[in-house]
TrEMBL record:
The protein's name: Reverse transcriptase domain-containing protein
UniProt GO BP: DNA biosynthetic process
Pfam families xrefs: RVT_1
Residue ranges of every copy of the Reverse transcriptase domain listed in the record: 355-598
PANTHER family the record matches: ENDO_EXONUCLEASE_PHOSPHATASE DOMAIN-CONTAINING PROTEIN, REVERSE TRANSCRIPTASE DOMAIN-CONTAINING PROTEIN
C-alpha cells in the first residue's frame, strides 16, 4: 500500500489507541473518520498516521460502520508499521445488533525455528599454502584436452580439493536467535538452574538469595554481552554483518517460507516452495519470435568487432578487484579464493577463457544460475509478487567483464548507445537523467507552456528479450565473428534453479532474456533497445527499460504519434509494455515521513542507543533515503529545510 500524508485533524476523532509496548507493529485503534476524509485518503492510496516517530498505515480500504440516516464511516482501524504485515483481509457481517462490520485478517510475523543452541563451524583458509600448490602445477599440460568441459572440470575439482586441504575448521557453540550469548553466559545459565534446584530441595532463604544474586548477575552479563555484540557489528569493516543484523531484527517474514498453491492451500516444504517459485519464473519467458515482419537494419560499413583477447594481465587485474565477500556461484568457487590466489590462477583461467572464446562453447557451470526470490510488493504468499535475483559463476563474470570493456570501447567509438540512455552507462545516473529532464520542463514552464510527461515501462523486459531477435540486433551493430558466436552460445541452453533456505528446486530452461545477475546482460539489453530514441520526434530519456517521453501540450498530436510508434516497436521486438506502470504526468506553472519511520525502527533494533551509534546508522540506512537525487529536489525554503533537518534529531528518540 502506498500511503500519502493527509491532515485529519478536522475530519477525525481518536477515541482510543492501544499500541504494543515495544515496536508498534500492529495497533488496535478506535478512530472514527468521516466520509470526506475517507474518500480523500483512499484517492491518495491509503491512510497514513504519525505515531511518535513511527509512521503507521491503515490496512483497510472500505468503510466499517453503517447506520441508517448517517454517512458510512471508517472505524476500528487496523494500523500497521509495515503494509505487508496484514494479509487476507475480509469484511464479514456484523455480530448481533452491531452496526460495525467484523474484520478478519492474518498477521505475518517472524517465527524462529532455530534451536536454542547449535554448533557453527567456521573455515579459515591458509592462502599461502594454497598459492604454493597452485603455482606448482603445469597448467598447460593439465588443461591440454580438446574438450573445454573436461579442462574446466579438472581445474574446478583440483581447486575445490585443495581448498579443503588448505582449510582449518573451528566449531563454536552459539544461539542463532541470540548470537551474543557466549560460553561464560551459558555457564552462568547452568549455575542458575543448579541453584534453583538446590533451593527447591532445601527451601532455605540462603539458597534463594544465592539464586537471586546469580540471576541478577546473569541479567547484567547478558545486557553487556548484547551491547558488546551490537558495538562489534556497528564498528565492523564488513557492512554486510550490520545489514544482516538489522534485517533479522526487522524481518516480518517467517523462516518457514511458504507460498499459496492454486487451490489456496500453503506449500509444506522448502523444496515445494522453491519449485513453485521456479514454475512462476519460468512462465515469464518469451518463445522464439518470427523475424519476417521486422524492419530492415543495415550494418554501417567499417563498424565491426569480431575478437576479444583474454591475456593473463587483464584477467589478473579483474581478479584483484573482485569482492571477496561475494557468494560462490553454482560452481562453488569462492570469490575470496579467486582474489587471494589471483597470481597463480590468472594463467589457467586465461587458458580456459581463450579456449572457450575460440571454440564458442561454455561449460554448463557458466550457463547456470541460482535464483533467490526477493519480495517486491503485495501479498507475500503469492509467488508472482517476488523478483528473481540470479547468482552466476564468478569465473565467467571475469570473462564477461573483459568482453564488456571491449564492447564499451566499440560502442563509444561509433556512438551506438544513444545519449538519451542513462542506465548502465559510465558518467550517467538517475540524477543526471532527472536534471536533464527538469531543465527541459522548467524551460517550457518559464515560457508559459504546460508539459505532458508519459512514463513507459516494459513488462519483465530483461527476461523477455527474444534471443534470436537479440542476435539480429547485435549483427546490425557490427558484432560478428567469434564474438557473436560466443555470445550466441552464452545465451543458449541456460538453466536456473531457485534456492529457498538452502534447498534447491528442480532445474528449468531459460527460454529468453539477457541473463540477470551477469555482467554482460545489461550491455546486451542496451544494444537491443538502442534504436528506440530514434523513433521519436518528442524528447525522451531512458534508464535501462524505463522510458520518459515528454512534450508541451501544443504538440500533443506529436506525442500521441510517438506513443503509437513505441507500441508498434514493442510488438515487433517482443517486449510488451506494462500497462499498470505506464502513467501520464501533467506539469504546469514527501519523503521525510519515510526517513523518520526508518530512523525510529533502527532505534528499536539496539539495546542502548547513543549518538555515535545513531549517527552511523543514520549515515548507512537513512541518509540514502533523504539524499537520493538531492541535486534535483533539495529544498530552498527554510520551512522545507526544517522538515528535512528534523530527521537528524536523534535525542528526540531516546
Amino acid at each position: 500500500m502506498n500511503g500519502s500524508l493527509f491532515n485529519l485533524d478536522s475530519h477525525c476523532r481518536v477515541i482510543r489507541v492501544f499500541p504494543t509496548k515495544k515496536r508498534p507493529d500492529v495497533f488496535q485503534a478506535i478512530l472514527e473518520i468521516d466520509r470526506l476524509a475517507y474518500e480523500t485518503v483512499m484517492k491518495r492510496g491509503g491512510l497514513v498516521v504519525g505515531y511518535d516517530h513511527c509512521v503507521v498505515y491503515d490496512a483497510l480500504e472500505e468503510c466499517t460502520r453503517f447506520r441508517s440516516g448517517q454517512n458510512p464511516s471508517l472505524l476500528d482501524l487496523i494500523l500497521i508499521s509495515n503494509p505487508d504485515l496484514a494479509t487476507n483481509l475480509n469484511y464479514l457481517p456484523p455480530v448481533g445488533k452491531s452496526d460495525h462490520v467484523l474484520l478478519e485478517f492474518n498477521i505475518q510475523v517472524a517465527i524462529s525455528i532455530s534451536p536454542k543452541k547449535t554448533s557453527v563451524t567456521k573455515t579459515f583458509l591458509d592462502f599461502d599454502k594454497l598459492n604454493h600448490l597452485l603455482s606448482s602445477v603445469d597448467w598447460e599440460n593439465e588443461l591440454s584436452s580438446d574438450s573445454l568441459d573436461d579442462n574446466w572440470l579438472k581445474f574446478r575439482n583440483m581447486l575445490l580439493i585443495w581448498q579443503i586441504k588448505c582449510s582449518v575448521s573451528k566449531t563454536y557453540i552459539t544461539n542463532p536467535s541470540k548470537p551474543w550469548l557466549n560460553p561464560k553466559i551459558f555457564a552462568l545459565i547452568g549455575q542458575k538452574k543448579s541453584l534453583w534446584q538446590k533451593f527447591r530441595r532445601s527451601l532455605s532463604i540462603e539458597d534463594y538469595e544465592s539464586h537471586r544474586k546469580l540471576s541478577n548477575t546473569l541479567s547484567k552479563q547478558i545486557k553487556l554481552a548484547k551491547k558488546g555484540y551490537e558495538e562489534r557489528i556497528v564498528n565492523s569493516d564488513n557492512p554486510k554483518s550490520l545489514f544482516k543484523f538489522v534485517r533479522r531484527v526487522l524481518a516480518i517474514e517467517a523462516k518457514e517460507f511458504r507460498l499459496k498453491r492454486a487451490d489456496d492451500t500453503l506449500t509444506t516444504s522448502d523444496y515445494e516452495t522453491a519449485n513453485l517459485f521456479a514454475h512462476t519464473f519460468s512462465h515469464i519467458y518469451n518463445h522464439t519470435l518470427s523475424q519476417s515482419k521486422l524492419p530492415d537494419h543495415e550494418v554501417t560499413p567499417g563498424r565491426i568487432i569480431t575478437d576479444v583477447s583474454f591475456d593473463r594481465e587483464s584477467i589478473l587485474r579483474k581478479l584483484q578487484t573482485i569482492k571477496p565477500t561475494a557468494c560462490p556461484g553454482p560452481d562453488n568457487i569462492s570469490p575470496s579464493i579467486l582474489r587471494n590466489c589471483s597470481h597463480p590462477l590468472s594463467f589457467p583461467l586465461s587458458l580456459l577463457m581463450e579456449q572457450s572464446f575460440h571454440s564458442s562453447t561454455l561449460p554448463c557451470d557458466w550457463r547456470t544460475a541460482y535464483i533467490t526470490p526477493i519480495h517486491k510488493s503485495g501479498n507475500r504468499l503469492k509467488a508472482n509478487n517476488y523478483r528473481p535475483i540470479s547468482l552466476t559463476s564468478s569465473v565467467v563474470k571475469i570473462m564477461e567483464s573483459i568482453i564488456v570493456d571491449r564492447l564499451d570501447s566499440f560502442t563509444s567509438e561509433f556512438a551506438i548507445i544513444p545519449k538519451e540512455q542513462y542506465g548502465f552507462t559510465k558518467g550517467k545516473s538517475v540524477e543526471t537523467n532527472l536534471l536533464s529532464c527538469l531543465n527541459d520542463w522548467s524551460s517550457l514552464v518559464d515560457l508559459g507552456k504546460s508539459v505532458d510527461v508519459v512514463y513507459l515501462d516494459f513488462a519483465k523486459a530483461f527476461d523477455k528479450v527474444p534471443i534470436n531477435l537479440l542476435i539480429t540486433k547485435l549483427k546490425t551493430h557490427g558484432i560478428s565473428g567469434r564474438l557473436l558466436a560466443w555470445i550466441t552460445h552464452f545465451l543458449s541452453d541456460r538453466k536456473f534453479s531457485v534456492k529457498v533456505n538452502g534447498v534447491l528446486s528442480d532445474f528449468f530452461d531459460v527460454l529468453s532474456g539477457v541473463p540477470q545477475g551477469s555482467v554482460l546482460g545489461p550491455k546486451l539489453f542496451l544494444l537491443y533497445t538502442a534504436d528506440i530514441p530514434g523513433l521519436f520526434l518528442s524528447p525522451c530519456a531512458m534508464f535501462a527499460d524505463d522510458i520518459k517521453l515528454y512534450n508541451d501540450t501544443d504538440n500533443s498530436f506529436t506525442l500521441q504519434e510517438d506513443l503509437n510508434k513505441i507500441l508498434c516497436w514493442s510488438e515487433s521486438w517482443g517486449l510488451p509494455l506494462n500497462k499498470n506502470k505506464c502513467v501520464v504526468l501533467h506539469i504546469g506553472k514527501k519523503k521525510y515521513w519515510k526517513a523518520n519511520s526508518r530512523m525510529y525502527i533502527l532505534h528499536q533494533c539496539f539495546t542502548k542507543s547513543n549518538l555515535p551509534l545513531m549517527s552511523k546508522l543514520f549515515k548507512i540506512f537513512v541518509r540514502p533515503v533523504l539524499e537520493f537525487a538531492h541535486p534535483v529536489w533539495f529544498p530552498d525554503r527554510l520551512q522545507d529545510l526544517e522538515v528535512y533537518e528534523r530527521v537528524q534529531r536523534f535525542e528526540d528518540m531516546g
